[in-house]
Design a protein that fits this description.
Blueprint lengths: L7 H8 L5 H41 L3 H16 L7 E2 H16 L6 H15 L8 E2 L4 E4 L5 E4 L2 H9 L5 E2 L24 E5 L5 H6 L2 H5 L1 E6 L5 H10 L8 E4 L4 H9 L15 E3 L4 H7 L4 E2 L6 H10 L4 H8 L2 E2 L7 H14 L9 H34 L6 H11 L5 H12 L27
Parallel strand pairs: 1-2, 6-7, 6-8, 8-9
Antiparallel strand pairs: 3-4, 3-7, 4-5, 10-11
Helix pairs in contact: 3-4, 3-5, 4-5, 6-9, 10-12, 12-13, 16-17
Amino acid sequence: MPKKKKDPLHALIEGGGETSDSSIIGAIEAVTKKWTRQRKSEEKDRSRVHQRYERMRVRSDRVTFKDAAYQVMEEAYNKASSNGRYPAHARQVMYAARGKILELTGRSELNDKYFTQVLLPDYIREHGLEEEWDVVYDARGHFVEPHTELEIPLGTLEVRDYLAGTHRGRKKGNEDGVTRLGRSFPTHGVANRFGAVLFVEKEGFLPLFQAAHLAERYDLAIMSTKGMSVTASRMLVEALCSAGGGVPLLVLHDFDQSGFAILGTLQRDTRRYEFGRAVEVHDLGLRLEDVNKWGLEPEGVNVRGRSSDVRRNLRDNGATDAEIEYLLSGSRVELNAFTSEDMMFWIYKKLEEHGVEKVIPDEATLEQAYRRSLKRRIINDGMDVLEKKAAEEAEKCVMPESLQERVAEMLEESPTLPWDAAITEIVDDEEGEEPDAGEGQTAAGDAPPAEPGPNAS
């Protein structure tokens, strides 16, 4: 059995004789070397534990963007909207809130899209403020009626006005001289004007559609957006394409994950918009069958998200198993893979397969339109003579005195009145006519806003 080795200090004591200080210190250090190493290791570990604790404590104490935004959101909206007196743009609310959010979070930057597209809509929905707060968003797309040349930007205010019948949409072309009755029968919305709405996920195809007279050929209203459908477009879709009372919505999209997502958001509730009525949606977009039939060239793409999540999302939005596998392989096909001629032929076939036809109103509407056209011909035939006589009388008339001063007085009394409407009222008053209802009157909501100050809210 091997003899057990003694430690240096024990050997020194048993050896007897004189010992120096250095030999004692050396023996003690040798014995306590392992203990010292262990002690230092423990102290280092405690330091690391403390550092970890401090990092966790600081992180838990930090205010998140969401917490900060929710703290100041009501105050920011009231400031941006003058306490709800006016509509407030989402970015106005963001500017009103940004300073305090950065102060609360200790950050230096706030992503504006995150605020306007996530934090603000979530706050409104979670607090049930959809009807109470009037928050508007930029137009991101257009809606064009066939034949009327009425073009509506897809913004909150513009869509709201269109549905209410008070168009701010841009009319192409200007009328000059005396207004005559137009050739078109007056319509608004789907009634007697278009039989379907074609939604296109890209705005770049509108010139092609206009050159091919697609809208006029099939009596289609065409809606286009830059990518995903915005809230305003879904609000318009719900009003025009509700099942049982509206017209069908035809969706034209790329063959990719985003294209199927666009199809889904136009018929299913999302975080940003909940449909109050079901919408009649028909998929006219690119599918795998079209890709193979037309020999369209694919392009590579990185699949976003986990494979299982993407698979589930594609299936929820109507993709087949074969299409899901194709897209998960990292390929996609855009509508741009078509030549212009092939694309139009392909769209024509799709429209015919879905039974899209020209609009022909009922007998009563046709009779009304016939009588109106006859009245138009009679009025317009005599308009030239009447216009010439009116021009001669207007040229001979004597101008009233102090016309500029009278206009200025009227505008001071009615700040919302334009100068040309003031002139019309002066002429009507001199002829003994009553001014049009509402002219010259200032509604309560037209009163000038209070003078803003540094503490205005």
